[in-house]
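Example 5.3 — Dihydrodipicolinate synthase family protein
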Amino acid sequence: MSIQWNGVMPAVTTKFTADDKLDFNMFEVNMKAQLEAGVSGIILGGTLGEASTLLEDEKRELVKHTVALTNGKVPVIMNIAEQTTRGAILAANKAEQDGAKGLMMLPPMRYKASDHETVVYFSEVAKNTSLPIMVYNNPVDYKIEVTLDMFEELLKYDNIQAVKESTRDISNVTRLINRFGDRLKILSGVDTLALESILMGSDGWVSGLVCAFPAETVAIFNLAKAGRIDEALKIYRWFLPLLELDINSFLVQNIKLAEVATGIGSEHVRAPRLPLQGSEREKVLGIIAEGLRTRPTLPDYKNL
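Solution (predicted structure tokens):
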């Protein structure tokens, strides 16, 4: 299965049981909702997926289970976030062996690599896997920016195909298109800039709140791409307070609370994360409750 790098691709949460095991029953509930809504791919093991807390065996089990569950309907993409080049290559090889069809890759973790070191890091992984790669460019959270000049070097590898654009600079979408045209697919990686990014020409949206609101997320994307901007904007304006739950250090807890409210997730997180408490919890629950109270009726967005 080739990856088109377009549409809505959820960066899904990892579901846990109360005794801290992988919860594949609840995971399946969420996957069915994502597929029914019309997502274009499933991304595992990102920040929202609590990848830094997952054991190696759990990551592999998660990939294998998702591949079986999606059954070829959409590609399964595994996030690579490693400290060493060797570790990243091994992780990519394991994901490929387990049935993943693509990779999302962060720059080296913890060490702030130079531009040259970062290019070599991505290049070595690209040379050692046949899987297509989406570079996750998020200098705000991970302190390393993949610049246009760095992409110029990276794009000599055919399997480096896309960028999850999370610089927070909306004009960067236009810079990327002007420089690389269709050679580099662009997916918005910031929920609160998603519609703006799509209107500037992004090919897709890697979303967080889609985990709780899959239909609304895909509707916004499809309507915008169909030129029905007013309808997309109306849903997006309703969605924005919820989308802001994704640009917060408690994004995992926030989005899992939203999944509980929509019936397609649980609140269980893995320590050191803990469920929200006190005034912060009440604030988030209030945002979610208002979103549900005013939840819009969607047009037939699947047949545009």
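Remark. Strands lie at 7-10, 42-44, 76-80, 102-105, 133-137, 160-165, 185-188, 204-207.
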